[in-house]
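Cross-posted from the bioinformatics board.
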Amino acid sequence: MKSSKIILFITVLCISVSAFAQQRPASFIELDGGVSLPTGNWGKAATAQSLMSINGTVNDVHGYANAGGFGSVDGAWFFSKHFGIGGMFKYGTHNLKGVDSLSQGYEESFDVDTTRTTHTQYKIWSIMPGLYVDFPLAKRLSFTARALAGITDASTPRITVTIEDGGVFDQPVVQESASKAAVAFDGGIGLRYGIIRCLAIALRADYFYTKPDFTIQNTQRINNAGREVFAYDQPLTSVNVSLGVAYQFGRR
Amino acid sequence: MQIVRVSRNQQWLSSIILLSLAIAGCNKGAQTVTPALPGNEFLTTVELQLTNVANPSDVQLCKSTQMSPTSHTYQVDSVFTNLAFLRLKAGSIYAGRVIILDETQTPVDTVSTEILARENYHLFFFQPTPVLSSNIDISDTSTSIPMTDWITGQPATDTTAFGTSVNEVLATSAANALNLSVSRTDHDNNTPPLQIGLQDNFYTGAASAGVLRVVLRHQPNAKNGTYDPGSTDLDVQYAVTIY
C-alpha cells in the first residue's frame, strides 16, 4: 500500500515535470524572511548546577542560541530546464535563551545575593553561491532545491554579569563578543507558486552549517570561579524556515 | 517637470525591496536578574585555635558566638563573649586556625570547610589594637584593617570579654600597644595565588593587652589581597592578654 503510493507520487511528479518543463525556468530574484531554529549544542543551555564552580573556572559548550529571525536575498539563472546557478546573501540574529540558569550559575559559584546578566545577540552574515534546482509540479507550482557553499561572518554575544552581594556591587564578569569568518554550507528544499506572471511566493526549509571556532576574550576576571569560556568550537547549525517573494525575470 | 513612468512590474520589485528592508532584525540587549537563593547558612560561632609552635601542649581556644549559652538558641542581636579571650605567652609564635561553625544545625555545620572550598574569593583580616600607627601596614599581603573601617565611637558599655572596649585605637607609645602581629600562611587557587587566612601565624612580643578584631571579607570576582573590595561576612573581637 505504501509502496504503491510512492510509485503513484513519482509518476505524477514525472508527468508534471514533462508537461510543464518544456522551457527553462525563469531567472529570479527573491527576498525572504523567516525563522532560524538553532540545533546541536549551539541551541542548548546548561543547567545552573553544571555551571557551578567555586574553586576554579568551568568551560561551557552550550551556545544558548534562541530561535532567531533572518532576512535574505537570493537569485538564480537557469542554464537548463531544471538546473541553475545563483547565490544568497543572508543576515540573521539570535537572542539568548536559558540566561537565567547562566546567571544562577555565577550566583552559586560566587555565593552572592544577586546577579544581573545582560547580553547582546549572535549576528551571522553569509554570502553563498551554489546550485539551484527547479522542477515544475503544475502550471504555477514548482519544487525547488538548492545547495550552497560560501563564507559566513559570525559574532558571539557580549555577556556581562553584574555581581551584587551584601549591597555591594563587585567587579562584573564580562565575556567579550568574538567575531570570525568561516566556510558555510546551506542545503534546502521548497515550493514556489506564481501568483502573477512576474511574481511568485516561495516557502523554503534549509539546513545551515558553519563552524567558526571562536577565540573568546574574558575581561575583568579577577578570581578563578564560575563559568569562563576561552574558545567556542561548536558548530553553528540551524534549520531555517522562510517565506519569500520572488520577482521572475522575462515573464510579462 | 519630468514625469517618470513606473511599470507595474517595477512597482512590485520596489515593494519587495522595501519589504525586505523591514525584515532586518534589530539589535537589542537583554537583562536577566537572578535574585538570592534561599538556604544560606548562619555563621553563629567563630573560634580561634592557637598552638604554641615551641610548646604544642600550649593550645589556646577562644570563641565568639551568637548561640546563647543558656538556651542554646541563635540570638540575632547578641554576641556572647564569655569565652572570647586569648592568653598568649610573650615572645612566642602560635600556629592558628580559624574555625567557623553553624551551631543551629544538628550536627554542627563547620562552615569554615565551605569557606576553604570558596577560598578564591574569601580573605581574613586581623587587626590587633592598640597599635602604633607605624605598625599599620596596608598592602595586598597585610592583615591590617584600614583605619577608615575601624570601630570607633561605640559606647563604653559595648565591650568584649573582660569588659574590654570594642573601640579600636592607636597606641600612643610602644608601652601601651598590644604586641601582637598576624600573618596568613595559606593560599588560594587564584592566578597568582592569594592568601586566605584560615591558617595563620600569631607572633607575640612583650607582655601587653588589647583587642584582636577578626574580619572575613567576601570578595566575589574582586579578591586582590586588599581589604576594600566586597562585603563583610563576619566581624568579631577577642580580648587578648600577652603575659
